[in-house]
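User: I'm curious whether this sequence folds into something compact or stays loose and floppy. Could you predict its structure so I can see for myself?
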Amino acid sequence: IFPSNSGNKEITWMMLEAGAETDVVNSVGRTAAQMAAFVGQHDCVTVINNFFPRERLDYYTKPQGLDKEPKLPVKLAGPLHKIITTTNMHPVKIVLLVKENPLLAEVEALQKCYRVLDLICEKCMKQKDMNEVLAMKMHYISCIFQKCIAFLKEREDKLDGFIKSLLKGRDKDGFPVYQEKLIRESIRKFPYCEATLLQQLVRSIAPVEI
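Assistant: Here's the prediction. I'll summarize afterward.
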């Protein structure tokens, strides 16, 4: 998908949906994302790095092995895929995407979804061409879903309460402490300690006080 060098996000997305491979290299050994980054087309890099084929998610909507039931109900695949492929990773945006879909905004549905995300995360880390970025993204969304479940179970204001908590700033400077702690907690809980991306994030964040 080397047309990504031109900076056209829509064409890049269309080619990905049509089945273009992201790990194919050119004559100098560079992938499309690496070439797009080299020429400064960072929007296209974002599109490529956030792409997750729908068929990879649909795999979990069919019973596998000895399972009698699929891990993900078919009705949840579309809403979950929309969240997986979003390029806006702000926790409030993710919670709003959950809240806007009645099928998703239920404890049982979110439990099924976060378990599937954890399986995808594991697969990203254990496959031959390890994808740490996608694994971290799946883990991060899974953590937000689990926090959504807690608010749905425990709070009368449910997801609205979660959004308020994320947006509330501390008195002295308006800094959203709860949001910062949530993001740090999700990084801390990433289960693959050997991941280079995790180590880079920890080195960057650890010295910075909230």
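Summary: The chain has two domains: 1-50, 54-206. The chain has eleven helices and no strands.
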